[in-house]
Structure formats: structure tokens, C-alpha cells
Design goal:
The complex is a heterodimer of chains A (147) and B (418). With 147 residues, chain A is an alpha+beta fold. Chain A has a single domain, classed as Sufe protein. Chain: A (Alpha-Beta Complex), CATH 3.90.1010.10. Helices cover 39% and strands 20% of the residues of chain A. The longest helix of chain A has 16 residues. Chain A is globular. With 418 residues, chain B is α/β, with parallel strands linked by helices. In chain B, strands 4-10-9-8-7-5-6 form a seven-stranded mixed sheet, sandwiched between helices. In chain B, strands 13-14-17-16 form a four-stranded antiparallel sheet, with helices on one face. Chain B has a two-stranded antiparallel sheet with strand order 1-2. In chain B, helix 4 packs parallel to helix 5. The longest helix of chain B has 21 residues. The radius of gyration of chain B is 22 Å and the shape is globular. The two termini of chain B are 18 Å apart. Classes of the chains: A alpha+beta (147), B alpha/beta (418). Chains A and B meet through loops of A and helix 12 of B.
């Protein structure tokens, strides 16, 4: 039986209450919105990218504890990374939250989200900001939807 | 978990909720090791054994197409289908069985009116009035119609308690108003709208009124003759019947003037390649083989509700709503959204600093099923400045102990996010 503590780990609760990099980014040259029409979660992800490196990243918006903590921890993890690395991290993150893999080599602290795989309806919450980040890197201006 | 320290007095009428629960096999299960507490009745209701048996028996013994075969099975199927129509007529207290049209659900009923009555009566520059508390299914069909006809959609606002601002409604009525479409009961707030008064005001100006009764029929003894509304729609699955079947009631004199919605079998009297003569009511609006089993199942659900007693259901739910309102209001940091004086058994709420989705997940672990999200009423969520709410909606089989379980569950939500 899934355990709530696997989903709502301390670090996730802490980030949901005090999200990091929770602001607009004046120097952003990439941005995209992520929207989950089922629950109304809505985030904007800002990226400042130069020469294939993410110099700075932030987010704004509203959502549940899982989506907000995921967005917050994502911004911390991506700062200073190459855009190609960021895409590979998204793939690895997606694999652990959907239970397809337990490999967390690139993810560091983000491995705490592996508990989401026990709660399939919450996968979209965990990946919302990541989808927006990915869309922003691809240069899509239109909001990406989880549906 | 605290278990009912303050159980409800049994109703004097002999209504026994524990006996009622025996009729619903699905309620006997455990979810995540806890007894299922089903509080998502505004989304869909569970089915009593008699409805399940009716569906099985129909397919096992009577399955056949209706209104055409001369053989015995077809006669039986037709008889049962028309008997279901008679049950609906009596359920709504409609005067004429010709005004009872089987459709897929409330959504299809509203789209039908928009695309038949609407296309022929709403023209360029005209106005259709809805309210700020409508479900998307009573918004989008009118937006589509207004775009097609270059007409305008006008919206009656709601106050902070979630009640319609009736003065504003009257102010919006004018020579351009061609139709009012309004919920009888709000799915997200539980507000019961004063439909009878609205119809009277509208009729004084010769404006017809469509009522979305999806959330009213499970809770209230609906009387379309007394309401005097022109159209009334509801869904079978919200009144303990099957999904995929619903009802459009219309005044026959209006339905008669309207063009058909869909063309096909059963809706015709005769067809040549030059001309088609449409069938009489209600068949003119029932093109194609309908959900025969669904209609018969809906008939069984209505007969079940009548046997329990519509007034008993209303009294039990009213009792439970008062109990739940008091219990939830005592939780610090909890805000009820929708505090109308006249309410059906729906409790929408938000918790300070905790998103509805997280409430839903924690409650699910305790076996408690509620709805979280915008309830297909996004404009209403914007009106109350919340992205989403948690919603507990009650049915005839819910108990005070289940409300206690909900309250205990909300306390554990607060512990997780403390």
C-alpha cells in the first residue's frame, strides 16, 4: 500500500512552503507556461540561457505541494547546467516519477520524488514545471498543457 | 479516527440510512484498508442493486430494438423503454409524456436546445443570459451558439455567499433577451436558485427559461409544472441510474416548433429522397437507436428513489448538510465556498495554505472519496479567487459517521502539512 510519507517527504513539504527562485527573472531569454487543466495548476518558468548554459532559472505561479516543490527543486538543480543536461535530467526525472526506472544518477536531491510513482494521478503535478522548462528551451511561447 | 460521538437522530419517517446502504453493493468495500467513504455524489452517484439487476435482466431477457419489430422481444423492450419515460414524466411531474426526450445526459440536452431552439430563435445582436455559477456544460453550448449567430452572452453575477444577484438578472433582461439558461442547483457551491421566481420574471417578458437540473434532481422533489420552466435537463447517473442516459423535458408546444437536432432512424415518419416527414414528439428528437438499457435502468433508479421517498431523501440530506456544515466550520483555517441560505448537500471548501489536490490525496489514503479541482466551473473559481476547491457532496446513503471520518481526515491533512 502506498504510504503518504513516501509522497510528502520533509524536503518536499519544506520546498512547497518556501519555494526557491520563486520570482520573475528580468534577464530571462526563454520562458514558457505550464498548465494542468484538471486541477488548475499554473506555472511560468523563466530561463536565462547563454552559450548552451543555464545561467539562471526561476518560476512563478500556483499549484499543489508536489508541483510547487518540484518546480522549486528543479530551479535549484538546473542552475549552471548545460541545456542538454537539463533535458537528460527531465528524462530521468520523468522515468523515476512514472516508476519506469530507479536510476537517479543525474538527479541528486530530486530523487525524493521517486515516491510519486506510487501515486499515478500525481505524476502530472510532479512534471508540470519540467514540461514548461522543456518547452521554454525549445522556444515554445504557448502554454504547455498536461492534457 | 473519531467515530460518531454525535450521531444524527433517526428521522421520524422510518428512513433508515443503514438499511439503505445495504442496497448499494459498491459501498461495502475497503479502499487503502479503510471503509470506503464516498462523498463524490455530485460527480456521479453509486447504483443500487435494483438498477444493476435491471440492466442485467434487460440484456439477459429482453434485449431487442425498439419501435420497429413485431416480435415479442421488441414489444417487451419497447414497453419497458416507454414505461421508463412514464416514470420520468411522473418524477418531474410533467403534464405530457411527449415532452420527455431521452438524451445522453444534461450536456447533450443543453446542446440540443442551443442548436435547435437557439439556432431558430436567437439572431444577430440578440442575447442569451446565463449565470456566473454555471457548469461549463451550461456555458460553452451558448458560447458556440452566440458565435454562430453573432449574439451576445450575458452573465448574472453571484454574491459572496454564492447566491444569484436577482436584481442584476432583472436589469439584464431586455428586448434582445431571447433565452435564460440557469442551474437549478450549483454543482460547485450547492446553491439552490429560485427558479420559479426567475421563470415568472422571464415569462412576464415572454422569455423562455432552460433549467440545468443535473444537481437538483438527486436532492429535490422537482416539479416542472410548478416551476413552469420551458426546458429542464438532467442526467441519469446523478440520480443513482446508469451513465450515458439523461432527459430533456420541454413544453411540447415549443418542441413541436423546433427543427430536429439529429437526423436518422426513429425520428422520421416517412423518407423519400425529396422530402422527409419528421416523427411526432418525443421521437422527433430521438434519432438512432437510443441507450435502451440505460433508459430502463434510469426508470428503475427513479422508482427506487420514489420508494425511498423524495421527501425522505431531501430531509435526510438536509439534516446531514447541517451536521456537516457545523462540523467543517469548526475546523480552523477551513473556509466554506458557497454559504447560500438555500443549499443542497454540497460542501466546497479550501484550507489555508493547502492545495485542494493535496487534500484529495491524503483523504483518499483514508478511504475518503471527494472531488478536488475547479468542478468544471472555472469562471466561478475565479469569482471566489481560488484556483480549486475540495468538494464533499452527499447522497441518500451517506451517514453522520462518514462526516466524522471526513472531519478526522481533514485534521490528518493538516497534520501532514503542519
Amino acid at each position: 500500500m502506498p504510504d503518504l510519507r513516501d509522497l510528502y517527504q520533509e524536503v518536499i513539504l519544506e520546498h512547497s512552503k518556501s519555494p526557491r527562485n520563486f520570482c520573475a527573472l528580468a534577464t530571462a531569454n526563454h520562458r514558457a507556461e505550464g498548465y494542468n487543466p484538471l486541477c488548475g495548476d499554473h506555472f511560468t518558468v523563466y530561463l536565462d540561457v547563454k552559450d548552451g548554459h543555464i545561467r539562471s532559472v526561476s518560476f512563478q505561479g500556483s499549484g499543489c505541494a508536489i508541483s510547487k516543490a518540484s518546480a522549486s527543486m528543479m530551479t535549484q538543480a538546473l542552475k549552471g547546467k548545460k541545456t542538454e543536461e537539463a533535458k537528460r535530467m527531465f528524462e530521468e526525472f520523468h522515468s523515476i516519477v512514472t516508476g519506469k526506472s530507479t536510476d537517479t544518477e543525474l538527479l541528486g536531491k530530486l530523487a525524493v520524488f521517486s515516491g510519486v510513482s506510487e501515486f499515478p494521478v500525481r505524476v502530472k503535478c510532479a512534471t508540470l514545471a519540467w514540461h514548461a522548462m522543456h518547452a521554454a528551451l525549445q522556444g515554445q511561447e504557448q502554454a504547455v498543457s498536461t492534457e | 479516527m473519531t467515530i460518531a460521538t454525535n450521531t444524527l437522530r433517526p428521522l421520524a419517517t422510518g428512513f433508515n440510512v443503514y438499511k439503505i446502504r445495504e442496497d448499494f453493493p459498491i459501498l461495502k468495500q475497503q479502499v487503502h484498508g479503510k471503509p470506503l467513504v464516498y462523498l463524490d455524489n455530485a460527480a456521479t452517484t453509486q447504483k443500487p442493486q435494483v438498477v444493476i439487476d435491471t440492466l442485467v435482466d434487460y440484456y439477459r431477457s429482453d434485449n431487442s430494438n425498439i419501435h420497429r419489430g413485431v416480435h415479442t422481444l421488441s414489444e417487451r423492450a419497447t414497453e419497458a423503454y416507454e414505461q421508463a419515460r412514464a416514470s420520468v414524466k411522473s418524477f418531474l411531474n410533467a403534464r405530457d409524456v411527449r415532452g420527455i426526450i431521452f438524451v445522453r445526459g444534461t450536456t447533450e440536452a443543453i446542446n440540443l436546445i442551443a442548436q435547435t431552439y437557439g439556432r431558430t430563435h436567437v439572431g444577430s445582436g440578440d442575447e442569451v443570459i446565463i449565470s456566473a455559477m454555471e457548469h461549463h456544460s451550461n456555458i460553452v453550448p451558448w458560447q458556440i451558439l452566440c458565435r454562430q449567430q453573432q449574439a451576445h452572452l450575458r452573465v448574472v453575477p453571484v454574491n459572496d455567499d454564492g447566491e444569484l444577484e436577482l436584481d442584476e438578472l432583472e436589469r439584464l433582461l431586455g428586448p434582445k433577451t431571447k433565452l435564460i439558461a440557469i442551474a437549478h442547483v450549483s454543482n460547485a457551491l450547492g446553491t439552490i436558485n429560485p427558479v420559479r421566481e426567475i421563470v415568472a420574471v422571464a415569462h412576464a417578458r415572454n422569455i423562455p427559461v432552460l433549467v440545468d437540473g443535473a444537481q437538483a434532481c438527486p436532492h429535490l422533489d422537482v416539479d416542472v409544472t410548478d416551476l413552469n420552466c420551458d426546458f429542464y435537463a438532467f442526467s441519469g447517473h446523478k440520480v443513482y441510474g446508469p451513465t450515458g442516459i439523461g432527459v430533456l423535458y420541454g413544453k411540447p408546444e415549443l418542441l413541436d416548433q423546433m427543427p430536429p437536432y439529429q437526423g436518422g432512424g426513429d425520428m422520421i415518419a416517412s423518407v423519400t429522397f425529396e422530402e422527409t416527414l419528421y416523427n411526432r414528439l418525443p421521437y422527433k428528437f430521438e434519432a438512432g437507436t437510443p441507450d435502451i438499457a440505460g433508459a430502463i435502468g434510469l426508470g428503475a433508479a427513479i422508482e427506487y428513489m420514489k420508494a425511498v421517498g423524495l421527501e425522505n431523501i431531501a430531509a435526510h440530506e438536509h439534516h446531514l448538510l447541517s451536521y456537516a456544515t457545523e462540523a467543517l466550520s469548526s475546523i480552523s483555517g477551513l473556509r466554506l465556498i458557497g454559504t447560500a441560505k438555500e443549499k443542497a448537500a454540497v460542501l466546497s471548501f479550501v484550507l489555508d495554505g493547502i492545495h485542494a489536490h493535496d487534500i484529495g490525496t491524503v483523504l483518499d489514503q483514508a478511504g475518503i472519496a471527494i472531488r478536488t479541482g475547479h468542478h468544471c466551473a472555472q469562471p466561478l473559481m475565479q469569482r471566489f479567487g481560488v484556483p480549486a476547491t475540495a468538494r464533499a457532496s452527499l447522497g441518500l446513503y451517506n451517514t453522520a459517521e462518514e462526516i466524522d471520518a471526513l472531519v478526522a481526515g481533514i485534521h490528518s491533512v493538516r497534520e501532514v502539512f503542519a
